[in-house]
Amino acid sequence: MKILNLYAGIGGNRKLWGDEHEITAVELNESIAAIYQDFFPNDTVIVGDAHQYLLDHFKEFDFIWSSPPCPSHSRMRMLWKGDGSNITGDKKSGESYKFPDMMLYEEIIFLKHFFLGQYCVENVISYYEPLIPPIESDNHYYWTNFYFKGSKNTSRELRNQDKSRIEKAWGFDLEKYDHPRRFKRDIINNCVDPKHGLHILNMATGAIPPIQEGLFERNNK
Fold first, then answer.
1. Would you say 61 and 3 are in contact if contact means Cβ atoms under 8 Å apart?
2. Residue 23 CB coordination number (10 Å)
3. Longest Cα pair distance anywhere in the chain, in angstroms?
4. Does residue 72 register a pLDDT over 90?
5. What is the residue range of 119's domain?
């Protein structure tokens, strides 16, 4: 199967997909793309604009996963004030006001109407009521053209732990990469839990082996 993995990051969602598929990953940040390529040497990695790549190449794939940038949608926006600080007055963690990035909904609408394969668009839970109803699973929103049952919220507590614990739990080791600690923390925090990435791919393809007892409910439709 030909898979397109957009806004790929270091490949949290892709971690457990194996190497039996032909996977193309698109990531704008060259440093992050290099880490992805190191972890998944069999994938084709494109450094570029994932939004435009989707428009230009969507017909070439059987399954598309897209994780458009999430900060402008996040509930954390409600903690920030327009002067660049948050409600605690911390200038370092706050940002100025910003419109929600509508690329998210552009891709959902486009894929729904023009893509003939299976797709999954992922993002954080937003501070506003979603404009298009999603499936909520593990503290994330998912828009798909196939049914899957949402899971328990298992990764939120983990994301609050030390970076090394998240890396160990998800099977990534970032120690050898010469990047600041904050950079590594951000890219591991931006990952989708690999178990969820595998579950969603399995639901899209109809291959649903047991993953973890009690974590997901099977589709009985």
1. yes
2. 24
3. 50
4. no
5. 2-205
